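forwarding from the other thread:

> can someone predict this with adenosine-5'-triphosphate?

sure thing
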Amino acid sequence: MLNIKNLAVNYGAIEALRGVSLDVKAGEVVTIIGGNGAGKSTLMKAISGLEPARAGSIEFKGQDITRSAAHDRVARGISQSPEGRQVFADQSVRDNLLLGAYLRPSSDAGIGQDIDKQFTTFPRLRERQHQMAGTLSGGEQQMLAIARALMARPSLLLLDEPSLGLAPLIVKEIFGVIRSLKESGVTILLVEQMANQALKVADRAYVLKNGEITSSGSARDMLDDPAVREAYLGKH
Ligand code: ATP
């Protein structure tokens, strides 16, 4: 579904990504693990079209999208839940969800059904649908960011650090949602510092270090890899 070859992204003289190649197949959950500043968010932004590629190529469903605009990538089926959530604070929960469907005509009867579907997945959002998004708790805002991304009916969902800054119980809940999305057939690329949780839900993983992929393999093998455990799981 997604095929990236030799991707490079720069911020001025800083090489944030170098020679990154990876692929995600339909129905897979793939995770990118790496420490602070490894380039994880930059990779997500390059895929969603928010940062330009300096070199390399990005193919989605067999089409070259390396130079496509961000809204064109959404229309093709790529939707991102960004790091730090970035919900529209002074809009209601319901309006945030409507904004997630901005590329669909507002007369689209499916939009109401999709909002209902998100409320079934995230019951707390239904209770708070008229509340301003900025007054939600961190965990609720994260749920809203994911639900908003799903409103575009993506075939590839990009999740950038969904557990960031959340209490363990909420993290568990978020990963439960990721697991059920996977079961419903959504293809997911997940960036996480909580490597342990991410590897438990993922099929495959890539390790990103200083802007380069240093290893890759099945999530199960990664969980058992002593080098990965030492560097990213805090266990020996
Ligand atoms: P974190 O987990 O801390 O968010 P990350 O793996 O997501 O880290 P990125 O945010 O992709 O890392 O950053 C990769 C590198 O690019 C870092 O060295 C960072 O300082 C640099 N960088 C990121 N955004 C910019 C920017 N807008 N301008 C200049 N440098 C940037």
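The longest helix spans residues 168-183. thats all i got for now
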